[in-house]
Design goal:
The protein has a five-stranded parallel β-sheet, covered by helices on one side. Helix 2 links the parallel strand 1 and strand 2. The chain has nine helices and nine strands. By secondary structure, it is α/β, with parallel strands linked by helices. The structure holds phosphoric acid mono(formamide)ester (CP).
Length: 298
């Protein structure tokens, strides 16, 4: 029996995997509604933290591919009787789903869940990584630019980098695809670790034009001692407004992984304006996650 392949980090995908995955996602765009692999495989989702896009698009992707889906919900599980996350996961793995998609509040080590029969997909673990989000973000950019890589593309990521697993996975993947990254963060939300990307702290240091800008929200649920900035201060200094977008250039596309707080990190008009790819990211989430499920079961 072939061991299924886990994807817990962008580092789990080599260059060949990436090309195949993006190729398959592109080809699934036209076929996903009619393709049914009828694999008989079962995907289980276990989200220990709230989600709209990630959980539902994995479930949509699996159902479109003909997989069967079962969902663990904390509120109706034995966690309400005191069972902890680690014990819950051990029990889910013992049931041997073919794929287990996990979202957790803390970074987790999937190797502790070692199983010959189950592939693990990281649906976002604390501040660590969110590989499927980075894959769909990069796929959306590649599709927009009708290209196989992001060579020389200038990408600006703005926001709470300190608590962002989306930023961490995107820094890895966008850099591998050749993008030139600039990170703009309030000093209190600077990335703690070293990064190959240039970091700036003020909009006045932004040197447009850019090819793409990604806004991140303040991830208050991960701030143990409270949020170091008010929403008002954040908006006045770091929000993507129409005026600031003008400075980034008329061809600069706007991205946001969601959930989005209009009026804090981005203006409603920008989020819903002609340069926005935000709903295209969500649409692409289904095909990219379908290609990722196929990768894991291959
Ligand atoms: N981008 C993202 O992870 O969204 P959800 O939290 O809704 O899954």
């Amino acid at each position: 029996m072939i061991k299924p392949r886990s994807v817990v980090s962008i580092d789990d995908l080599n260059d060949g995997d990436l090309s195949r995955l993006f190729f398959n996602a592109r080809s699934l765009k036209d076929r996903l509604r009619t393709v049914s692999r009828a694999r008989n495989a079962i995907m289980m989702t276990a989200f220990f933290e709230a989600s709209t896009r990630t959980r539902l698009s994995f479930e949509m992707a699996a159902l479109r591919l003909g997989l069967r889906v079962t969902t663990f919900a904390t509120t109706t599980s034995s966690m309400v009787k005191g069972e902890n996350v680690a014990d819950s996961l051990d029990n889910l793995v013992a049931m041997e789903p073919d794929i287990l998609v996990v979202r957790s509040e803390e970074p987790w080590d999937h190797r502790k869940l070692s199983s010959e029969k189950t592939a693990f997909i990281n649906g976002g673990d604390g501040i660590n990584e969110h590989p499927s989000q980075a894959l769909l973000d990069c796929f959306t950019l590649l599709e927009h630019y009708k290209s196989d890589d992001l060579s020389g593309r200038r990408v600006l990521i703005i926001g709470d980098l300190a608590h962002s697993r989306v930023a961490r996975s995107n820094i890895k993947l966008m850099t591998r695809l050749g993008a030139k990254l600039t990170l703009l963060a309030p000093p209190v939300f600077e990335l703690a670790e070293e990064s190959s990307a240039r970091t700036i702290f003020s909009f006045s240091d932004v040197d447009g034009p850019y090819d793409a800008v990604m806004c991140l929200r303040m991830q208050k649920e991960r701030m143990i001692t409270g949020c170091a900035m008010t929403d008002g201060d954040y908006f006045s200094q770091y929000a993507l407004t129409s005026k600031r977008l003008e400075h980034l250039g008329k061809d600069c596309v706007v991205m946001h992984p969601g959930p989005m707080n209009c009026g804090i990190e981005i203006d409603y008009a920008v989020a819903n304006g002609p340069q926005s790819l935000i709903l295209q990211q969500v649409r692409n989430g289904v095909v990219v996650r379908a290609a990722l499920l196929e990768h894991c079961l291959a």
